[in-house]
Give the backbone structure.
Amino acid sequence: MDFLVLFLLYTLVLLLVVVFICLCSDHIVDAVAQIFHNVVPSWLQHITQNAVHSHCQSRNITFVILHLVLEVAVFAEYSWEILGACLELEFHWFYLLLPYGLLTVNTGFFFFSCVTDPGTITKSNLQQCLQVYSYDEVVFRRNQFCPTCSLEKPARSKHCRVCNRCVQRFDHHCVWVNNCIGALNTRYFLPYLGTLMLMAAYLALLTAAFLLQVVVLSGLMLGSYQDADRQEWATAINFIVQLAATPVSCCICCSQTKRPTNGLNKDMW
Ligand SMILES: [Zn+2]
Ligand SMILES: [Zn+2]
């Protein structure tokens, strides 16, 4: 079975599992909870429940650290494998340094999303918050009080049970920035999401351009390779996709070809 078929099968199974989990999530959670309750010792259940509570139901920096680790991993991969090879292929330095600029801007918005007060409602600013939005008397009604804070609820405000506070124009609690997203930090959170999306799309495009350049310059489409039985095969699209899926291979390919040639050295593959 060749690589493309395996890859398509893997994608299909993954999608089916995701659809299955989405459709049956309630039953799955109930079944897992029941198994967990019957099989796992009570002391371990207690520890697990505390861990889940501390990580999902109260503020903590676990996901902030995970976010930073993932970004470092992505840029280490980019700097280590893609950047040098693209320089060898004479990509313009501006296009190669642009991701670092986006990363700097994104990190700035990320930082401000984390540390800026989202619009906490207190006794001192309550009257001011009550004036901002009018009540629709459908979702937000007058003279309703937060049972936890004992403060009148301004329109479009909501109590965040993770942070234990009422927030003006509450949107959601984001674990990735370990903060609520509300009236005062949406201005940082939306550009953070925008630059994150831009950065991911740009890195994907740059990597695709690099791989395409390697395939074109090496004349890979015209080459051939030998299998384990030393039988020679023409390079088909599935072989190229398999090679492109491992950037290290392409970097080696790039360093071996350097400049365009009319054909491919058959022994190279
Ligand atoms: Zn409240
Ligand atoms: Zn919150």
